[in-house]
Design brief:
The complex is a heterodimer of chains A (about 500) and B (about 475). Chain A is of the alpha+beta class and about 500 residues long. Chain A contains 15 helices and 16 strands. Chain A is elongated, with a radius of gyration of 30 Å. In chain B, about 40% of the residues lie in helices and about 10% in strands. In chain B, strand 10 and strand 11 form a beta hairpin. Classes of the chains: A alpha+beta (about 500), B alpha/beta (about 475).
């Protein structure tokens, strides 16, 4: 997915009298190889209608059989969000007519969903805020309609792909928080390998329920549902736009109509699709083709065993244990591979301050270099242990910070061990006072005019002497000791 | 050859080299050509495919290859069973012209056992009906009296077997659709335990009730065919993971000490025709004479079976039939826009009984009414099942008439409710998911067959076949054959 957007700036444009209340319904594609109820593959970008079978096509007589791989992924998310897991949940049929829905119903879950009462940790500034999840349920995706002029085509490659729908409680208080919720969920599902959650491929999509009420009011206002939101920025923009629209209507004495609105990202506006009066009756009932979905202790034990430290916990720990800034910690947990790199580097170079040093090197030098090459952390030519080795040499004075950057570049290019490069090049820092005194003495002796001028108060010349010592030593002189000795030699 | 040979005997002769599969197939094809114009059992014939398959069986035998238990036996299939490359319509205009790309599991298993599919058999549209009069394509006549219906919905399957247009057939039974036509046509029809036979490739009517089963001229043939089609199918999540016994081995001819329940709700007060009642009494006497113990039992929730069925079945049907929208297969009407496409395709494609049930089911499932209808009906189902569970503590099988009357005349059931009421003895079996069999137990004075129904414990088809064979031997039709279709 595109790294379009970091944390969104608060707009501050909202009316202080009004409080927005937002709930999100997010669909996340589960990263299974085959479809939810049939053997066809879930590959993206194949020629239309090539990933089909009698079940996907809804042919007469075809029957669904549930792909247990989807269950495991959904359970991981359920456990990671501290949801209550139903030991016995059910698939239900949700009926509506549309050409991209081959059976005339979608297999989903209704009154007996897999997960309920969970929570998702989102990051607001440097705080971790817990948002209640009403439910997480399993369902199948529909296909796609493509309209070419007056002709409509249907592509069923996506039909039957397994999804979870994650439904938040109406607890998000701003467009920023809504976008943060999406980010947190995106991070979590990628972290746990539940989904690639590539929004450009439609693997994560969001509907937002938005209402506003006067501050201090207990009752929720009438809500509008925004459909078709498929990026973090769009969530922010769509929700913000909707909040403003509702406030404008209410302030001018109008009334909000409960309706579904379609977000048009290009126009930056939403359009009414259908009102509650014309809402469809989905005629849910338990799917008689599928027995109840039973989750036993063995499956749960397996899921719990495989669950790593979650990104929100790691965020808090990076602040506490390593003293990272919230921004750096957030970047570090934005990608599991990045965080694991950090963990490995810290492990190779433990120490109170090493976490921050490693973070600085990773986020500026390493990510900068990788980014310039269009690579990710997984492709890093410098393994974490080597980066630690380099940082340790800078920290213990073996090389200067400046030389360290040169060694980094060399190491990045050749993959050679930093210590080997330093030794081969002979660029170890000179910290031996006697050796440096000799150089300082020589440099000052060779420039008597400048020495006089400095003594007479021309402070700017100190840098001239430092530079001269560095030239003499090919940059290897320890700058602290050099400065110390120069002061002594020049007498001020 | 004689087309009246049993399926088992046909297979034996082919395996022994006394008969070729091609001769058997040609004999049936000739008989179909001669008689089916009048009978109307077949919707589609696959003469070429059948002859080709027969030649393959003969070649395999000549090469000394092992032959399946139905090798060379000509069979035919109710047209709700999906057949690769052979039109499957469910007797509905909405599927007219659809050629499936796959075989139903039961069809695959029949072919795997060497059976030869002659063609597809008429039925009520989407198996909704009890007379086959609801077929969108043709009328099927009862071979015993051409003014009467063959029963339904598997009327083509029962008529074709009764008239020896095939050695055996498959039907489906959602509320009696195998057993009732078997009774009307004087053949054996078995509805197995729910989940015993895969529903994969069965055009769905009511998913929680539908079950595939054999229709045959003898109990032995029904056992043979069931053995072939039964068993776990990973493609049907509701199919049962239980071993399939050799049902033919269960046919011992013995019913000594077998306890057979007679539910008074099925015999008292119900409007059973006098001749049917008399035939059942003779059946009871014959069983008792052979050592069976007849036990009076109660199934107190029986009266609720019909209303519960007519909520559950239409509700599921309304959902299952949503896929017929004119978009991907079958009939698509010319239309101005999408909604118009749905309206016109479904409006022209479905017949009145199907529309009635879609409307009933849509009503029952609408938001806010689920608890009052579908859920309530499911609770009634649980009670009916409990009645049976209790009864099976005391008895090994339950005996009832299959139908209150023998076959009725075309057009005799003028209202849907009259038609539905004829199914009172067969519905509960589906609601409870139990196995049931109908075995001929005599003829009326007018020469119409009467069926005795046996119901059994889940997965205990063997006991029903065993007792059924005793009934067949004692009070069955013997050599009497339908005279209306020569």
């Amino acid at each position: 997915m595109t790294e379009d957007d970091g944390p969104t700036e608060p707009s501050g444009a909202l009316e202080p009298d009004w409080e927005p209340v937002i709930g999100l319904e997010v669909h996340v594609q589960l990263a299974t190889a085959s479809k939810a109820f049939s053997p066809s593959a879930t590959t993206f970008g194949e020629p239309p209608n090539t990933l089909t079978d009698p079940v996907v096509l809804g042919l007469p007589g075809a029957l669904p059989t549930f792909n247990r791989a989807a269950l495991e992924l959904a359970l991981k998310l359920g456990v990671a969000t501290e949801s209550k897991i139903r030991a016995r949940s059910r698939f239900a049929r949700k009926h509506y007519f549309y050409p991209d829905l081959p059976k005339g119903y979608q297999i989903s879950q209704y009154d007996e969903p897999l997960c309920e009462d969970g929570r998702l940790a989102i990051l607001v500034g440097n705080q971790v805020k817990s948002i209640k999840l009403q439910r997480i349920h399993l369902e199948e995706d529909a296909g796609k309609n493509l309209h070419v002029g007056a002709v409509s085509h249907v592509d069923l490659n996506r039909a039957g792909v397994p999804l979870v729908e994650v439904v938040s409680a109406p607890e998000l208080g701003s467009a920023e928080e809504a976008a943060e919720f999406m980010r947190a969920l995106h991070r979590l599902v990628r972290w746990l390998d539940i989904s690639e959650a590539d929004m450009e491929k439609g693997q994560m999509r969001c509907d937002a329920n938005v209402s506003v009420r006067r501050r201090g009011e207990d009752r929720l206002g009438t809500r509008a549902e925004l459909k078709n939101i498929n990026s973090f920025r769009f969530v922010h923009n769509a929700v913000e736009h909707e909040i403003a629209r509702q406030i404008r209507i209410l302030e001018s004495g109008g009334r909000i109509v409960q309706e579904t609105r379609l977000w048009d990202a290009e126009a930056g506006a939403s359009q009414a699709m259908r009102s509650k009066e014309t809402a469809e009756d989905y005629r849910y009932f338990p799917d008689p083709d599928l027995p109840p979905l039973v989750v036993d202790g063995a499956i749960m034990a397996n899921i719990l065993r495989g669950l790593p430290e979650l990104p929100s916990a790691r965020f808090a720990r990076y602040l506490r244990q390593h003293g990272l800034s919230p921004d750096d910690a957030r970047t570090m947990i934005s990608d599991r591979a990045l965080a694991e790199y950090f963990e490995a580097a810290v492990k190779a170079h433990p120490g109170e301050r090493s976490g921050r040093m490693i973070a600085n090197w990773m986020l500026s030098e390493l990510l900068g270099a990788l980014h310039a090459d269009g690579k990710t952390i997984a492709d890093s030519p410098i393994p974490p242990e080597r980066l630690s080795e380099l940082i340790r040499m800078v920290e213990d004075g073996t090389i200067s910070g400046k030389i360290g950057k040169d060694i980094f570049e060399e190491c990045y290019k050749t993959g050679e061990a930093p210590r080997a490069i330093v030794e081969r090049k002979g660029v170890q820092q000179i910290s031996d006072e006697a050796a440096l005194w000799e150089v300082v003495d020589r440099v000052v002796g060779a420039n008597p005019k400048q020495a006089e001028a400095y003594k007479a108060g021309k402070d700017g010349l100190f840098g001239f002497f430092v530079g001269a010592v560095m030239r003499e030593t090919q940059g290897r002189a320890n700058p602290v000791i050099t400065s110390d000795l120069l002061h002594k030699r020049l007498g001020r | 050859m004689s087309e009246w040979l049993s399926a088992g005997e046909t297979a034996r002769r082919i395996a022994a080299g006394e008969l070729t599969a091609l001769r058997a197939v040609d004999a049936y094809l000739r008989r179909i050509a001669n008689l089916d114009r009048e009978l109307g059992a077949f919707l589609a014939l696959d003469s070429e495919g059948a002859r080709h398959a027969a030649q393959q069986v003969d070649a395999a035998r000549a090469a000394g290859a092992a032959l399946g238990p139905l090798a060379g036996v000509p069979v035919a299939l109710k047209d709700v069973l999906v057949t690769r490359g052979l039109a499957t319509t469910a007797a509905s205009k909405i599927l007219d012209g659809w050629i499936p790309p796959y075989d139903a599991t039961c069809v695959e298993r029949l072919r795997g056992a060497g059976a030869i599919v002659l063609g597809k058999l008429n039925c009520d549209e989407f198996a909704m009906g009890s007379s086959t009069e609801r077929s969108a394509f043709k009328k099927t006549k009862n071979p015993w009296d051409r003014t009467r219906v063959p029963g339904g919905s598997s009327g083509g399957s029962s008529a074709a077997v009764a008239a020896a247009l095939c050695a055996a057939s498959l039907g489906t039974d959602t509320g009696g659709s195998i057993r009732q036509p078997a009774a009307f046509c004087g053949v054996v029809g078995m509805k197995p335990t729910y989940g015993r036979v895969s529903r994969y490739g069965v055009v769905a009517f009511a998913s929680s009730l539908d079950q595939v089963g054999p229709l045959a001229r003898t109990v032995g043939d029904a056992a043979l065919v069931l053995e072939v089609i039964a068993g776990l199918d990973p493609r049907d999540a509701t199919s049962l993971d239980a071993p399939v016994p050799r049902y033919r081995d269960a046919l011992t001819g013995e019913v000594k000490a077998l306890r057979i329940g007679l539910p008074h709700e099925y015999f008292d007060g119900a409007q059973i025709d006098g001749e049917v009642r008399a035939a059942l009494d003779r059946t009871i006497a014959a069983l008792r004479e052979r050592g069976a113990e007849m036990v009076d039992i109660a199934l107190p929730h029986t009266e609720h079976a019909l209303p519960a069925y007519y909520v559950v079945a239409p509700a599921e049907a309304s959902s299952n039939l949503a896929r017929y929208d004119g978009v991907r297969y079958g009939k698509r009407a010319e239309a101005a826009d999408l909604l118009d496409l749905y309206r016109r395709s479904r409006g022209a494609g479905f017949g009145p009984e199907v529309k009635r049930r879609i409307m009933l089911g849509t009503y029952a499932l609408r938001s806010g009414y689920y608890d009052a209808y579908y859920k309530k009906a499911q609770q009634v189902r649980a009670l009916i099942k409990r009645d049976f569970d209790k009864a099976f503590h005391h008895v090994d099988a339950i005996l009832t008439p299959t139908t209150p009357t023998a076959a009725f005349r075309f057009g005799a059931k003028s209202t849907p409710l009259e038609m539905y009421a004829g199914d009172i003895f067969t519905l509960a079996c589906n609601l409870a998911g139990l196995p049931g069999i109908s075995v001929p137990c005599g003829l009326t004075g007018d020469g119409l067959p009467i069926g005795a129904q046996l119901l059994g414990r889940p997965l205990d088809e063997a006991t029903l076949l065993r007792a059924g064979q005793v009934i067949e031997a004692a009070v069955g039709l013997g050599d009497r054959r339908p005279g209306a279709i020569a």
